[in-house]
Description:
The chain has 287 residues and is mainly α. 69% of the residues lie in helices and 0% in strands. The chain is built from 16 helices and no strands. The model has no long low-confidence stretch (mean pLDDT 97).
Amino acid sequence: MTTLPARAGRRCHNVVNPLHSTVYFSPDFTAELSALGVEDRSTAYFAGRAAAFGRVGPGVVTASFYSFRHDLVAKALPDVWDTASPEEVLAARLRSVDSTLRRLLGDEALTSDAMAEAARLALRATEACTRHARPLYAAHADLPVPQEPHLAYWHAATLLREHRGDGHLAALLDAGLDPVEALASHTATGKGMAPKWIFATRGWTQDDWDAATQRLRERELLGADGELTEAGVTLRAGIEDATDRLDAAPYEHLGAEGVERLTELATGFIGTALAAGAFPADLLGKS
Length: 287
């Protein structure tokens, strides 16, 4: 029996997760990876997020990342490890996290009592995360927790993000959505990534997108106008509810008071980061 208000864990995730994601949109990350010789942005992203696995090939990344075209992944891996080792990439990523958060939040916020409290709360939540069937979470859970509070908070946000993400993929599979169908249906909710960003970062083409939307129409999940049907809305809502159930343990472990406080602190941090331009203005949307 849950002790939390409805969707409290999801609300907490929705303000903790974006701070994790800021690094992959940061010029600091691009600069750090370029200094290692990894200049292609897609390759840098795959290396940065997959380095916790070690010297993996494209199959592991395509499977665990889910929404990327395999051909795009295979252009990066495993060749990138001949340019920069996973250990070098992880160190570069953490350096870029440090500089990115300093730029977005300011040094005072990074050394504040609020940041230290957020790190403690988020790390406490991760104590209830589980490794089985969660490859990205499990790989990152094997990494050491940084000492500095802002880096510890980012590390905990990463663990919580990947734990929920691994469960979300199980929900997508159960719903019968392939990678492009998952992206297209999410975009149709108005909360997903805009198609132009998907084409630029995921490797899919307009033809792939059109074929996926046609399949969604044939399942009566998407209307001719490109909007989700009632069945589509229900399916997407069910996916989020299933993801909540699979991701309940960390927030149940933290407890209602802890979740409420972490949500409050995280809301303040991500609000400051967004105001500082952490993400492109046109990242989300239906077009």
